[in-house]
Amino acid sequence: METNSLYIHIPLCVKKCAYCDFASFSGRMAQRERYVQAVCREIRAQAAFFGPRRVGTVFLGGGTPTLLTGAQVQEILDTVRACFELLGDAEITMEGNPGTLTMDSLRAYRQAGVNRLSLGVQSLDDGLLAAIGRIHTSEEAAQAVRMARGAGFENLSLDLMYGLPGQTAAQWRDTLERAIALEPDHLSCYSLILEEGTPLFASVQAGTCAPLPDEDAMEEMDALTAGLTRKAGYAQYEVSNYARPGRQCRHNIVYWECLPYLGVGLGAHSDMDGRRFYNPADWEAYLHMAEEGRTAREAEGANTREDRMFERMMMGLRQVRGVDEARFERDFGARIEQVWPETVAQMTQGGLMTGDSGRIRLTPRGMQVMNGVLVHLMEEMDSKPQNGA
Question: Phi and psi of 229, rounded to 5°?
C-alpha cells in the first residue's frame, strides 16, 4: 500500500495580511462549521476514489487553521483516521497565528493529535508587524511559544520573514536572535516576495510605504541568517529552512522530493498517481462541490515528461542534499547529465554544482544564485527537441 501525504487547507483569516495572495478570506467565521463539514465530506469522497492509502504526514495550512476549535480539528483528523491508515509516527502539522491562540485551544489541538505546530511569527519588531498587517505583537508571539510548550508541543517551528519595507539588517538580526532565544525546533526564514495584486505590492509601486531593502542589505540579512542559525545549532536543509537534528519538516520534504500528496479544501492542489488536479478557489463553488460529494479533477496545466523532469530539478535543488540521481533515471529513463549536459558541466566547473553520494546538488555559492541556475536548465531544455534527452 502506497504512503501519501495529505494537505488540508483552512482559508479562514481574521484579516488578510498586506503581502498575502493565498486563497484565504476574512469575515467567514459564521460559515466555519459548514466549511469543516465540507472538508470532511471531501476527505471521504477522495478516499473512496483513490482507495486504501497510508498517510505519513498531514499538514493543516491556511489561512489561519488556529481559528478552528479543538473539536473541529478533532473531527477533521478523526475523518482522516477513518478513511486512511494514518501511520503511528505520522507528522501532523498545524499552522497558527500567535494572535489567535489560547492555552485551552493549544491543549485541544494537541489532544486531537496535532504533534507539530508552525507559528507565523514573521517578525519580532512591532513596527514591522503593523506595517505588513499582522494581528499579533512581538510579545504575543513569545507568549504563544511559551503556551505551546506548556500545552505539550515538542516540535515547534517559527516562520520569519525578511526583506520587509524599511527593514534594516540590524532589525533582522534582532528578530532572529530573539526567535532563536525562544528555542524553536525549526525555523523557516523567507525573504519577502511581492505578489502582484496584494496591498503591499500596490504600496511599494506607489511609493506610499518605506522602500524595500537594497541588494547589499539583503546580502547582509542572508549572511546573518546563515551565521546565526548555524551558531545556534540549526542545520540548513533547504534554501529557507533550518532545523535541529531530526526536526526537518517531513511534509515539506514530500513537495521538494516531488512525492505524491493529496490536497483537500478550497483551492488545494494534488499530485496523485501521476495526475495533477486542483479544487475551486471560490468559496461557494468549493462548498457546493464538496457538499454534493463531488471531487475536482481539473488538470493543473501542462504535465509533460519534460515538465516533470524540470520540476524534479527545480524542487530538488532547493534542498541542501539535492536531487537523487538514481531515482531521476528510474523515473524518466535518462540521467540528469544526459538531459542537461551543458548546464551540469558549466555549473560544476564554475563551482556552483557538485555531485556525491548519488545526488546532484548546489554548492553554498550555487544556492545563492539558484534562480540563475534554474534559468540555464530551462533554456537548455527548451533548446532541444522535446524528447527529454
Answer: -65, -45
Q: What is the DSSP string of 199-254?
A: HHHHHHHHT-SPPPP-HHHHHHHHHHHHHHHHHTTPEEEETTEEESTT-S-HHHHH
**How far apart are the two ends of the chain, measured CA to CA in Å?**
33
What's the rounded Cα separation, in Å, for the pair 73 and 191? 31
| Beta carbons of 21 and 63 less than 8 angstroms apart | no
Question: How far is it, in rounded angstroms, from Cα 227 to Cα 231?
Answer: 6
| Eight-state DSSP code of residue 62 | E
pTM summary value = 0.94
* Percent of the chain at pLDDT exceeding 70: 96
Question: How many whole angstroms separate alpha carbon 79 and alpha carbon 43?
Answer: 7
CA distance 177 to 138: 13
DSSP 133-199: T-S--HHHHHHHHHHHHHTT--SEEEEEEES-TT--HHHHHHHHHHHHHT--SEEEEEE--PPTTSH
Instruction: Give 339 or 388, the one with higher predicted confidence.
Output: 339
Q: For residue 355, list its beta bridge partners.
A: 360
Give me 62's grid cell.
Answer: 491556511
Count Cβ atoms within 10 A of the Cβ of residue 128 and give its class: 0-12 exposed, 13-18 middle, 19 or more buried.
Answer: buried
Q: Quick check: helix, strand or coil at residue 348?
A: helix
